[in-house]
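Sample 3 of the quickstart, ligand beta-D-galactopyranose:
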Amino acid sequence: MKRWLTLCLLLTLLGPAAARAELPRVGICAYSSRDTFIGSLLGQIRERSQGTLDFQIVYAQNDQNRQNDQVLQMIADGVDILAVNPVDRVSAVYLIALARQHNLPLILFNREPLREDLAAYDNAYYVGIDPRQQGELQGKLAADYFRAHPEQDLNGDGIIQYVLLRGEPGHQDAELRSLFSVRALTQEGLRVQKLAEETAYWEKGLGQERMAMLLNVYGHRVELVIANNDDMALGAIDALKAAGYFAGAQTIPVIGVDATAPAMEAIAQGALYGTVENDAAQQAQAVVELAALLAAGNAPTADNFPFPMTDRVVYIPSRPVTQ
Ligand code: GAL
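Result:
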């Protein structure tokens, strides 16, 4: 107690700079600086940690070896906690072993490690969303649309012909959103046929390119576009606009995931039919609160940590968004 009072007195005398120096240091390693959703997640982390944690952020630009070096550097710099958005979720096994070796708490986020890897270190956590739930919500949005707009079955064959734009291969969100969106559509009683699927790595530019190509091949046979995220959905909308859609009566339901700011704008304008929120604010809040607890040497419990956690995995719930 006496030491604590002396410390407070010292901090008051030395002013805000000294107070900042006492904050726990969190080393954040993000997979890329060019990802819209990750950008907003990091912005929220920055905002929500002000005055409580000292964050330092580095970007791996999609290179796992580079990220491994960055993590080693963070450890050498003496950070108190690591928060890593792995380039390759399977390689998280190495990062978990490193953190364990140095006895550092590790928060992985957005790219989910394998459960057996996470289980190997009891001071390793994951914060993200349940991509199955997000896929299901996408499928339900599409089903709602076709129930309200039977005329969108353009060829009247009673089957919805769709194209799918996938994120990165091997990313849990790409694999599971793809699977569960289509499964939910059929569970809702709709008959579907996949015309084609293309991988567009979460990127708007690639989404546009791939969609333009699909329109060249399939033209008006496409009745629905499902995209694993909003950036690819917005790219698809650009290609559709260039092909004359959304100008007059000719429209097409496009459904994404994330609810980024540009996606919300596209929904308001009536171009993007719907999206599923990937709640960046709550994921950031969970990372910040978890980091603060771990920095103080406390394990999260139902009493001190207000987010649902199972086996050190935190899934923030998602909700559908339309006009
Ligand atoms: C997903 C998100 C994508 C992309 C990806 C990066 O959860 O929906 O837009 O940011 O994470 O790992």
